[in-house]
Specification:
single chain, alpha/beta, 8-stranded mixed β-barrel, binds ligand C2E, binds magnesium ion
Length: 277
């Protein structure tokens, strides 16, 4: 019902903006509420060495099952959390939840590998992740070798000196550092070799169109070898993709081929206990 009149047009536009703002504020409040009331969950997705068929560990991924809207994609609510500053709180919650979970699996004598957690650029540069991680590890009495952190390529391209200082502290504790979504951020070989990291994580967009991207994936893998870095492929869904990756020398695999991200009880049952027997 847009009228010819210009000022009415403006009003229509303006109220649409208000609706969006209101929806945002509601979502922000809902997210805070969910965080404070322990309504968020963490799912775990296994990572495998496809060559030795060994479980390497898993990635911890946040899940928010909203009471009205159902599951909301982390890409959406992480962005909201970053824009509103909730992210540091949120990821400290993830860290504690993951460490508590690792402890529980250890007590059940079925713990294997490392769990990786994703760290946002806001948390990485504005929080104090080294002390948050150190104190949480101590609180739950678990070794740093149980943990890995994933930081996106784009995040790491920020400030070489500051980035390395933090990365070196984490790595000297025994925590591994992986560069997430590698290939989407345009960092150069020259820059990469200066960074203190353990692993490149090939972005799933390259894996999904493996045929088209085989040369790029091959380049990433040989670059990783040159720099003495480990390499993992994410988003692997088919056996064909695994065959190509193995041929190119990439043995660490994460993706629906092995499993979607799943609840901790199912991960324990299907992956940890299956191995412990
Ligand atoms: P990411 O860190 O790159 O995580 C991998 C994403 O790929 C996950 O999406 C996972 O479910 C999906 N995936 C894994 N294997 C496959 C596959 O074979 N096929 C397809 N199509 N997808 C696959 P998810 O769980 O929706 O998470 C999206 C993003 O949200 C994550 O991307 C990460 O950037 C972010 N995220 C999740 N939890 C956290 C967190 O605690 N902190 C931060 N900063 N970001 C988080
Ligand atoms: Mg990740
Ligand atoms: Mg990724
Ligand atoms: Mg991603």
């Amino acid at each position: 019902n847009v009228k010819q009149n210009g000022s009415d047009d403006f009003e229509v536009y303006d109220s649409a903006m208000n609706d969006q703002t209101i929806e945002r504020i509601n979502m922000e409040n809902d997210l805070r509420y969910a965080l404070e009331n322990d309504l968020l969950e963490i799912y775990y997705q296994p990572k495998y060495n496809s060559f030795t068929n060994e479980l390497i560990g898993s990635e911890a991924l946040l899940r928010w099952n909203h009471s009205n809207y159902g599951f909301i994609s982390p890409d959406t609510f992480i962005k909201l959390a970053e824009e509103t500053g909730i992210i540091i709180h949120l990821e400290e919650w993830v860290l504690r939840k993951v460490c508590r979970q690792i402890k529980e699996w250890k007590l059940a004598s079925c713990y294997r590998g490392r769990v990786s957690i994703n760290i946002s650029h806001i948390h990485f540069y504005q929080g104090d992740i080294v002390s948050a991680i150190t104190s949480t590890l101590m609180e739950f009495d678990i070794e740093p070798t149980c943990l890995e952190i994933e930081i996106t390529e784009t995040t790491m391209m920020n400030n070489e000196f500051e980035t390395n200082k933090t990365l070196q502290k984490l790595r000297s504790l025994g925590i591994e550092v992986s560069m997430d979504d590698f290939g989407t951020g345009y960092s150069s070989l020259g820059y990469l070799h200066k960074l203190s990291i353990d692993r490149l994580k090939i972005d799933k967009s390259f894996i999904h169109e493996m045929q088209k991207n085989e040369a790029i994936v091959a380049t990433i893998i040989s670059m990783a070898n040159t720099l003495n870095l480990k390499v993992i492929a994410e988003g692997v869904e088919t056996n064909d993709q695994i065959q190509v990756l193995n041929k190119l020398g990439c043995h660490e695999i994460q993706g629906y081929y092995y499993s979607k991200p799943i609840q901790p009880e199912i991960y324990k049952q299907n992956f940890l206990l299956a191995l412990a027997q």
